[in-house]
UniProtKB/TrEMBL annotation:
Protein's name according to its UniProt entry: LPS export ABC transporter permease LptG
InterPro entries: LptG, LptG/LptF_permease
Subcellular location(s) of the protein: Cell membrane
Pfam families associated with the record: LptF_LptG (PF03739)
Keywords associated with the record: Cell membrane, Membrane, Transmembrane, Transmembrane helix
Segments crossing the lipid bilayer: 12-37, 68-87, 107-125, 283-303, 309-326, 338-361
GO annotation terms (biological process): lipopolysaccharide transport; transmembrane transport
Membrane topology classification: Multi-pass membrane protein
Keyword Transmembrane helix: yes
Length: 365
């Protein structure tokens, strides 16, 4: 019986159903509260754009909801774990299960299986909805919540280098020779690396070679004066392929699409550590839901009448939130090249997997 993780079909269904209902309830509470707070902070910006009204507010909600669901689903699993296990403990159901011969791992097995299914659904949800919502919302934010250009391939806040010079664009639309940039800034540096000139332009298009700026305003740093011209060509070293590569957004691409983008980066000798870390995290992020029952398991055991149940719940919550802190820190270090991408994405997961197992075995097995 100790080797059978699901000795009772009825018990497995009972625990899984209880767990799922609490996950849904906690996710709904978190998303509704956070969506309300987010909408309050951004309503002014949305309505500031000409012609925006209630429909645009609902559009923002629809684009923001998938992001919130994806981000806070693991938190919901953690809170649902604590509520489920504390309830079972207070009702002496854990004692009854252990008296029937179930080990701690067998008690947790239905929750772990349910969390694994949730992780799979989270991955599919991210691939199908979250990436598209990220791309649409970033494009809309780049357009200051105004009309988004109808051209395909909208990217926002793009940063490119041509030697010591820098070209930035608020939005980029189109592909190939039809690429168009809006709200463009060109920073020209002298041979000593100091800023010599800043050029602001309304738009830019491919000039083969270089990029033709239109509606130009030039600021000469040495002379401290400003002048304007209709057109100006800059960045002759910037090719179309560089523009397309520099506008890769890992959050707006799915797992397989991002893999192809990374291959394209590596083919031209570009640094891929940040993209690779986020690529791995597209797997480890949803799988973090599987850890939550294990980290919160400390709340399931120990006698409720001992007065330590609340302390155990706090410990379980602390372990869960510590994982999220370490995970975000490791991902940031991986993005800056401090950790290898695989280590940045997976080290927190395996570290807290071992911690959770150690705590469970030492205290209950």
């Amino acid at each position: 019986m100790q080797l059978d993780f699901f000795p009772s079909r009825s018990l497995t269904i009972y625990l899984a159903k209880m767990f799922v209902l609490r996950i849904i309830a906690m996710l709904a509470v978190l998303v509704l509260v956070l969506m309300a707070l987010d909408l309050l902070s951004n309503t002014g910006k949305i309505l500031a754009a000409e012609g925006n009204g209630q429909d645009e507010l609902w559009k923002y909600v629809m684009l923001r909801l998938p992001q919130l669901i994806s981000r806070f689903l693991p938190y919901s699993v953690l809170l649902a774990t604590l509520i489920t296990l504390v309830t079972l403990n207070q009702n002496s159901e854990v004692i009854a299960m252990k008296a029937a011969g179930l080990s701690a791992h067998q008690v947790l097995a239905p929750l772990l299986l349910t969390a694994l299914v949730v992780a799979g659904l989270s991955f599919a949800f991210n691939e199908r909805f979250v990436t598209r919502a990220n791309a649409s919302l970033k494009a809309w934010e780049g357009a200051q919540y105004g009309p988004i250009p109808e051209e395909t391939g909208v990217r926002t806040n793009v940063y490119m280098t041509d030697g010591a010079n820098i070209l930035t664009a608020a939005t980029i639309t189109g592909t190939g020779t039809d690429i168009s940039m809006q709200d463009v800034t060109w920073y020209s540096r002298d041979p000593n690396g100091k800023l010599a000139e800043q050029i602001n332009a309304n738009s830019a298009s491919f000039a083969s070679p270089g990029w033709r700026l239109q509606g130009v305003e030039r600021f000469n740093v040495a002379a401290a004066n400003t002048s304007g011209v209709d057109e100006l060509i800059v960045g002759e070293g910037l090719t179309i392929s560089q523009i397309e590569l520099d506008s890769v957004d890992a959050d707006a691409q799915g797992f397989f699409e991002l893999s192809r983008s990374i291959d394209a980066y590596e083919a031209v000798g570009r640094r891929t550590s940040e993209l690779r870390a986020k690529w791995w995290h597209k797997l480890s992020g949803p799988l973090s839901a599987f850890l939550m029952p294990l980290l919160g398991a400390v709340a399931a055991f120990g006698l409720a009448r001992s007065g330590q149940l609340f302390v155990r719940a706090i410990i379980g919550m602390g372990l869960g939130f510590a994982y999220f802190v370490v995970d975000n820190a490791a991902l940031a270090m991986g993005s800056f090249g401090g950790y290898p991408p695989f280590l940045a994405a997976w080290a927190p997961f395996f570290l807290f997997l071992f911690i959770g197992e150690t705590v469970l075995i030492r205290t209950e097995e």
